[in-house]
Automatic annotation (TrEMBL):
The lineage of its organism: Bacteria, Pseudomonadati, Pseudomonadota, Alphaproteobacteria, Rhodobacterales. Its main location: membrane. The chain crosses the membrane at residues 29-48, 60-79, 85-108, 120-138, 192-213, 244-262, 298-316. The keyword Cell inner membrane applies. It is a multi-pass membrane protein. This is ABC transporter permease. Keywords: Cell inner membrane, Cell membrane, Membrane, Transmembrane, Transmembrane helix, Transport. The keyword Iron does not apply. It is found in: Cell membrane. One of its GO terms (cellular component) is plasma membrane. GO terms for molecular function: transmembrane transporter activity.
Length: 363
């Protein structure tokens, strides 16, 4: 009975208004989703149609892939500005492999390697993970700040994408039945059990990320590194390995997006993915991931991706200029960070009140 008294005392020390405000801040992503959905349902023509719902779900999925990887990175206290360029680079890699394979002429061999759809997907994903690994090594081994390291790889990956085709598009990526790549368009346009195949891919990746975050030692270490990197290191956490993992995983997610877009369009262009990193950051932060690290949930990020996806598509349906869309997304990021900081300050104040009430009870 006496053990329950301090909690009761602490709860009385917190005003109902403060508790309600803290709950509202924690639920802000769901509130934003409801408000955005209601606004466009009323004001955007054909917003509630089935065809539009399918389109929005596909757009949300693309952003959600990037945002899931970004969530892990931000939880560790980092940032990955290169994901949009990785999307473009990996799309070009997929397009090159579908059209040309790998030419072995330089080795004195008179033929080229051709790949089936699975192999094309695997090689594309490996390229994205390699760029993520480079990001991680720059940050962990050379002590380059995440912002600078990923800004540099942003330019390098985009330049490599442009060089791969001289700035031109790889068209007609319908694949070749002889090489087993005719199913390449299925990745982005196919349906399985009534749902787009890319949605099933998202479900698998999101479930894997949520499991890692909540059920594994690696997940606990990711949060520990973001909460207190030095404390995590002193407690035995392999900080560098954790950081390497989150950047490789972010590269993996970006590579999937590049692969899906190339498959959807049956074409790849080196400019694909420009500004995608902004949407990913916005979705993660709006979903409750703290820019200071140590806090974030995959489920919240998915909801944040829905908010950004509905916002983007709704603005297009209302005929809002793309310039204003960029402004609005920037304002969303700023508002999300401001609200996150307000939540952190309020939580700290509530914690102090609880400690003071507990101390008063025991004294």
């Amino acid at each position: 009975m006496s053990a329950a008294t301090p909690s009761a005392t602490a709860s009385h020390a917190i005003s109902p208004g403060t508790s309600a405000l803290l709950l509202l801040l924690k639920m802000r992503t769901f509130v934003a989703l409801i408000l955005v959905f209601a606004f466009f349902a009323i004001n955007a023509p054909n917003f509630l149609t089935t065809a539009n719902a399918v389109i929005i779900s596909k757009h949300v999925a693309l952003n959600a892939f990037l945002a899931i990887g970004m969530t892990f990175v931000i939880i560790t206290g980092g940032i990955d500005l290169s994901v949009g360029s990785i999307v473009g680079l990996c799309g070009m890699v997929a397009g090159w492999l579908v059209l040309n394979g790998i030419d072995l002429g330089a080795l004195g061999i008179g033929y080229s390697l051709q790949f089936n759809t699975f192999e094309i997907g695997l090689l594309t994903v490996l390229v994205g993970m390699l760029v993520g690994l480079i990001n991680g090594l720059l940050i962990t081994k050379l002590n380059v700040a995440p912002f600078i390291a990923t800004l540099g790889t942003l330019y390098v990956a985009r330049g490599a994408a442009l060089l791969s085709s001289g700035g031109r598009t790889f068209p007609n990526l319908s694949g070749n039945a002889e090489y087993g790549s005719a199913s390449f368009p299925y990745i982005g346009t196919g349906n399985l059990l009534g749902l787009p195949f890319m949605i099933w891919m998202l479900i698998v990746v999101a479930a894997l990320a949520a499991y890692i975050a909540s059920r594994t030692p690696l997940g606990r270490h990711i949060y520990a590194v973001g909460g207190n990197e030095r404390g995590a290191a002193l407690s035995g956490v392999k900080v560098n390995r954790v950081k390497l993992f989150v950047y490789v995983f972010s590269g993996f997610c970006a590579a999937l997006v590049g692969l899906i877009i190339a498959s959807q369009l049956q074409a790849s262009h080196p400019a694909t993915g420009e500004t995608f990193e902004l949407n990913a950051i916005a979705a993660a932060v709006l979903g409750g991931t703290s820019m200071s690290g140590g806090r974030g949930r995959i489920g919240g990020t998915i909801v944040g991706a829905f908010v950004i996806g509905i916002l983007s598509d709704g603005l297009i349906m209302m005929g809002v200029s793309s310039f204003w869309q960029t402004v609005i997304k920037g304002l969303v990021i700023i508002a999300a960070v401001v609200i996150d900081q307000a939540q952190s300050r309020l939580q700290a104040r509530v914690a102090l009140q609880q400690e003071a009430a507990a101390a008063a009870r025991t004294s």
